[in-house]
Design brief:
flat; 82 residues; mainly alpha; 4 helices; 0% strand
């Protein structure tokens, strides 16, 4: 079974996970999305997928786009040079 089928957000309105703007309404929406992620059994797989694939929009695995960029930069710095 695919991790997406096990996700707590499966069946939720997808718009919840794509807040628009930086104001109070967007912050409240982000927190509601993160609340779903906190109870998700596959949040780690979701977050890893989003980081690996450079997902630039929305809440994935409880992280915002800027948090995922920071995670990706950290991973790239830790990667051994070839």
């Amino acid at each position: 079974m695919n991790w997406r089928e096990l996700a707590a957000c499966h069946g939720e309105d997808p718009e919840l996970f794509f807040p628009i703007g930086d104001g109070d309404a967007a912050a409240r929406q982000t927190e509601r999305a993160r609340a779903v992620c906190r109870r998700c059994p596959v949040a780690r797989a979701c977050r890893s997928w989003a980081v690996r694939n450079g997902e630039v929009e929305g809440i994935w695995g409880g992280t915002t786009a800027s948090e995922r960029r920071a995670l990706r930069r950290r991973l790239l710095r830790q990667a051994p040079e070839e």
